[in-house]
Fold this sequence. Notes:
Elements: H1 3-17, H2 24-31, H3 35-41, H4 45-65, H5 75-90, H6 96-103, H7 108-129, H8 135-152, H9 154-168
Amino acid sequence: MSKEQIAKSLEEAFSQHGFAEPSVAKLKTACNVSLRTLYKYYPSKEAMIAGALEHRHHRYLHFLSEGLPEDKNKSIPHIFARLEIWMMNYAPNGCMSMNAISAFPDNPLVNQAVKTHKTEIRRFLGTQSEREDLATALYLLHEGVSSAWPVLGGDVVKSAEKAALCLLSEQPPLTTTIK
C-alpha cells in the first residue's frame, strides 16, 4: 500500500473517530497495513495526523476548485456553495484541522500542517476573488462557516456568502498584496 493510500485511510479514521480515541493499533487496522508499514511512512501518531491533514488539504482544495467558473464574479458564491456541500458530507463536526490542533496544540507537526492548510486557503480565496486585499476577510468568513456549522448548519453559509458579496462589491484599494 502506498503512502497516499495510507494517508487517505488515516484521514477517514480521524474524521470518523476524532484524534484522541483511535490508538495506533486501531489506525493500523483502519489502514489495512502492518504496524511496520504504518511506522515506515508515519513514525508517530502525530505524524499520522499530519499526513491525514495534508491529504485532506489537497482533497479539499481540489473539491473547492471543481467547476470553478471562469467569471471571477461567480467564483466566491461557487466556493461557498462547495463549502456547504463539504460541511454536509465531510465535516459535520466542523473543521478537521481545528479539531486536530485542539487535540494536539503543542505538536509542531500538527501545527505546521494546520498552518499550511489555513495559509493556502487564505491565498486561494484572495486569488479566486481577484481581491487579494480581501483575502483575510474572506478567509475569516470561510473559517466562520466551518466553526459555526455544527451549531447553525446551512444558515451560516448563506450569511457568510452574503457578507462576502458585500465586501467584494466595495472598491478595491490602489495596491494589493498577500504576504
